[in-house]
Amino acid sequence: MRYRGVAEIFSQISGIYDRFLSTATAGRIHSWQRELLSQMNPSGNWLDVGTGTGEVLRKLRDRYEGIRVGVDPAIGMLRIAKEKCGSCYFIQAVGESLPFKDGSFSNISLSLVFRHLQDKESFIEEAGRLLAEGGRVGIIDIGKFRGTPFLLFLMRTLLKPIGLLLFGKDKWDFFIHSVEESYSLEEIRSMFERKGFSLSYRSGRFFGVVQIAIFIKTA
Ligand SMILES: C[S@@+](CC[C@H](N)C(=O)[O-])C[C@H]1O[C@@H](n2cnc3c(N)ncnc32)[C@H](O)[C@@H]1O
Asked: Is 95 in the same domain as 53?
């Protein structure tokens, strides 16, 4: 699916997104995002890629002094983000092609976004360009794990009626596909290492379904 299709899907669900995510993660998303924030650089400009409704930047609001910027292709998501964080900047863009000059940021976060990127290598190159040495990329995502086939089975059976009711068939199929597209932490790690990053922190949450990883730009 091309960027416009993905942006439409997320724009259409933007009104129910926060409630759905909180329910689907039993409220844990907030502690995962705080864990990610605690492992990033304490200062400098911050870019949140696939910012959605801006939750990561909102959580930073009171204690972070650098400029906070969120990008997302879904304009519906960005509207809600701006309501939540009036002092943050939001731009419609994708992670594979970021409209900023070299070395502009010290932190780049992606919360539940990495598996949606259509060209992961291009994103990592962009992150390398935008970060100064020592800059960090922090990722929260559903990782590929032993239970992935079971999760996919549930999405195709038990969870399907709820999914169809809330989102409709096209969007539910898209979410199933995005779980199929998930990577293991080792796969993500080798992609980053090839582009001059090293893994500095990792943790598994939600019985290992959710991975949190921080990479530092070393070269
Ligand atoms: C599951 S939501 C996560 C939103 C938010 N980061 C959070 O943690 O709640 C995925 C977001 O990624 C965005 N997205 C999809 N493809 C993208 C891309 N290629 N580049 C940047 N963002 C993308 C979607 O529009 C959507 O807002």
From this structure: yes
Whether this prediction's pTM lies above 0.85 is answered by: yes
* CA-closest candidate to residue 68, choices 84, 47, 50, 95: 47
Q: Which structural domain range is residue 39 located in? A: 3-144+184-217
Same structural domain for residues 87 and 158?
Answer: no
- Say if residue 198 is in the same domain as residue 93: yes
Q: Are residues 199 and 181 in contact, defined by beta-carbon separation less than 8 angstroms?
A: no
Angle between helices 3-12 and 75-84 (to 10 degrees): 50
CA distances from 63 to 36, 38, 46, 57 (A): 15, 11, 13, 11
Question: Which atom of ligand 1 is nearest to 74's Cα?
Answer: 25
Task: Answer yes or no: do 198 and 122 share one domain.
Answer: yes
Please tell me if the CB atom of residue 183 comes closer than 6 angstroms to any atom of ligand 1. Answer: no
Q: Which stretch of DSSP H or E encloses residue 124?
A: helix 120-130
For ligand 1, say whether the CB of 73 is within 6 Å of any of its atoms: yes
**Tens digit of pLDDT for each residue in 100-149?**
999 999 999 999 999 999 999 999 999 999 999 999 999 999 878 777 88
Do 74 and 172 reside in the same domain of the chain? Answer: no
